[in-house]
Write a structure and sequence with these properties.
31% helix; elongated; five-stranded parallel β-sheet; alpha/beta; Alpha/beta knot; 8 helices; 2 domains; 10 strands; three-stranded mixed β-sheet; binds S-adenosylmethionine; Trp Operon Repressor, Chain A
Amino acid sequence: MTSQPTPWRATVLTLFPDMFPGPLGVSLAGKALAGGLWTLEARDIRASATDKHRSVDDTPAGGGPGMVLRADVLAVAIDAAGIAPERPRLLMSPRGRPLTQAQVTALAAGPGPLIVCGRFEGIDQRVIEARALEEVSIGDYVLSGGEIAAMALIDACVRLLPGVMGKQASGTEESFSEGLLEYPQYTRPQEFEGRPIPEILISGDHAKVAAWRLAQSEALTAARRPDLWTRKAGQKPLGRGTKNTTDG
Ligand SMILES: C[S@@+](CC[C@H](N)C(=O)[O-])C[C@H]1O[C@@H](n2cnc3c(N)ncnc32)[C@H](O)[C@@H]1O
């Protein structure tokens, strides 16, 4: 008898477990969840509160607005989740390292993370250190809680799991996979409001199509994301400089 591989797992600690699976329950991620290609466990942090009011937060030491998630309550919640040592322990946080496709790819290749969702003004620093939580940000803006950020991270990972996307190539040619933004896409009709599909894409010449797409990707990246372009420039000679069809 052959044993089934353990599916990729996401364990989420949240004050709002009812938010899950939410958007992760539909489309690609939802089908994969129903099909057992990954598993999701949303655990209620409040279940680890010990006082009769089941409180999870308190006022910030030193004063200031808002409330802070208590270290003792969250530590109990993390310990109760029984996370194997090889699983990453993440805390969604605007102070964290910005999430990248490279990190998503690495997370998708592993056993799947524990993800702590913050609320209020933040989380007591001592539990972040004591439970070695790695802070991860999904962008330079502030959400009201970590749940939507956790869903974004999980969705990005799940679509890379084997068997989730119809055609694996769709994960290897898209934005960020080669340090570039994706080239423009077109489909029928052949002409839309007087705009034809670029001639080269219907030429049937695969080499020319590939060269056109690369040039478009490079031009888009240089125009829109100089940070990515500079990084790419450090890796290989640049200078195709073909103008893309969407930016001047
Ligand atoms: C209102 S925010 C707290 C913001 C905090 N006072 C600060 O200035 O850094 C509440 C929670 O939302 C989540 N969150 C907000 N913005 C985020 C982002 N850009 N990336 C990841 N998580 C975020 C975090 O879990 C955070 O603890």
